[in-house]
């Protein structure tokens, strides 16, 4: 993990909701309002009168959506692939021969032209299918074509004021950020010293219907960083997973069909998630990040099985602090990070989230104990139907996932009992 990224206990990327005044082109101030997602445009005497009128018409005031109204749900299981033809089976068997060349999954990179083939091999369709959907948004995997969208956010001075790592260079954006974001789609949990583990879910924020998202005036943004529509990459939101005690059964094991770990197993492993996120400044103040935050937190608690989810905005990032509190996170402590910026830690436990968002229901583990593809580990896929023709325990949800595991150095080709 690079030193400058802010996904662990020392800091998170909290850019999307900064409580800071900017100037519209007409000279009026724009600030984040106390009601997450709204904008207050000041500078006119009529504003006070309008507020007075609203107070008199309490019966017509729009009620803010409660947690249950904003909450999504677990999607239906994705279907298994259809049956193969004889020709298709023969083609795949020719590719999956013992002794064929294997490729290393490097610790870093995978986006440049030299490694594009490896990326396309390891980043299978099933890896890319892990996405979240809200009324306005689709949170998908980050793609190679998102370079421009990432640059527009990270190179903007208004955004850099809230970043813990300062002003990254153009090369840093691709090497230190985009590479990492794309790699998170390949679910390889890294085992660190002391039996600890790490993994990530990093989603690109996109609009289901770009016309439904208002693009605010650029308000002094640099011309290259401005957007004219809500097409494509708008920002990111992520879960950085940390396992305090990574036990062997949580990963695919030789000789055993891989099964999705249960919530109990994750609790024993001490699974904790840290949220980090950012969004383009012209989308601030519309509740876009709030909408994404609610869904990712639900995903963490209801599907991934996190024991605790934390967020640690800087003390000056009032909008992000409100976002934490609004979603049931408790303040726990304030600490200075490695950049000497004080951060306010907030967290919510699995039981607290469930009691708040699924009242009257016991904690339910939808995917735990289910047979899962040993490559993509996509627990939303139907149980794997593709099996290695030389053993009875290596199972995959698609031929592409089988090939990825076969061509990886140290993958199934090395561990298969095929003589």
TrEMBL record:
Residues 373-416 form the MYND-type domain. It comes from the Eukaryota. Residues 27-37 have a biased composition (Acidic residues). Residues 20-86 are annotated as: Disordered. Residues 51-64 have a biased composition (Basic residues). One of its GO terms (molecular function) is zinc ion binding. Keywords: Metal-binding, Zinc, Zinc-finger. The keyword Protein biosynthesis does not apply. This is MYND-type domain-containing protein. The lineage of its organism: Eukaryota, Fungi, Dikarya, Basidiomycota, Agaricomycotina.
């Amino acid at each position: 993990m690079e030193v400058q990224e802010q996904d662990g206990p020392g800091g998170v990327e909290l850019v999307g909701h900064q409580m800071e005044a900017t100037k519209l082109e007409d000279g009026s101030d724009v600030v984040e309002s106390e009601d997450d997602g709204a904008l207050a445009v000041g500078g006119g005497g009529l504003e006070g009168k309008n507020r007075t009128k609203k107070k008199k018409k309490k019966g017509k005031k729009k009620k803010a959506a409660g947690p249950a109204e904003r909450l999504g749900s677990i999607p239906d299981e994705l279907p298994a692939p259809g049956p193969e033809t004889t020709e298709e089976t023969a083609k795949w068997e020719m590719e999956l021969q013992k002794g064929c060349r294997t490729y290393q999954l490097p610790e870093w990179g995978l986006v440049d032209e030299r490694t594009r083939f490896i990326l396309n091999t390891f980043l299978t369709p099933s890896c890319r299918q892990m996405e979240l959907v809200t009324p306005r948004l689709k949170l998908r995997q980050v793609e190679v074509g998102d370079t421009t969208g990432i640059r527009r956010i990270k190179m903007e001075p208004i955004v850099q004021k809230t970043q813990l790592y300062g002003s990254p260079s153009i090369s840093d954006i691709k090497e230190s950020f985009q590479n990492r974001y794309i790699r998170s789609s390949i679910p390889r949990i890294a085992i660190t010293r002391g039996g600890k583990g790490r993994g990530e879910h990093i989603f690109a924020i996109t609009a289901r219907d770009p016309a439904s998202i208002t693009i605010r005036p650029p308000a002094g943004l640099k011309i290259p960083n401005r957007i004219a529509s809500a097409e494509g990459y708008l920002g990111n939101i992520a879960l950085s997973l940390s396992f305090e005690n990574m036990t062997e059964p949580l990963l695919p094991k030789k000789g055993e069909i891989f099964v999705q770990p249960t919530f109990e197993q994750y609790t024993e492993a001490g699974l904790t998630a840290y949220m980090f996120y950012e969004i383009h400044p012209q989308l601030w103040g519309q509740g876009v990040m709030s909408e994404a935050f609610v869904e990712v937190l639900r995903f963490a608690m209801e599907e991934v099985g996190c024991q605790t989810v934390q967020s640690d905005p800087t003390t000056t990032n009032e909008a992000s602090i409100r976002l934490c509190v609004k979603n049931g996170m408790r303040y726990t402590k304030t600490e200075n990070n490695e950049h000497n910026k004080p951060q306010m830690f907030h967290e919510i436990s699995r039981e607290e989230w469930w009691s708040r968002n699924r009242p009257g229901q016991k904690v339910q583990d939808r995917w735990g104990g289910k047979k899962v593809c040993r490559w993509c580990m996509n627990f939303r896929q139907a149980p794997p139907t593709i099996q290695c023709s030389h053993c009875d325990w290596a199972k995959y949800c698609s031929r592409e996932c089988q090939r990825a595991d076969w061509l990886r150095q140290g993958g199934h080709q090395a561990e298969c009992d095929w003589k």
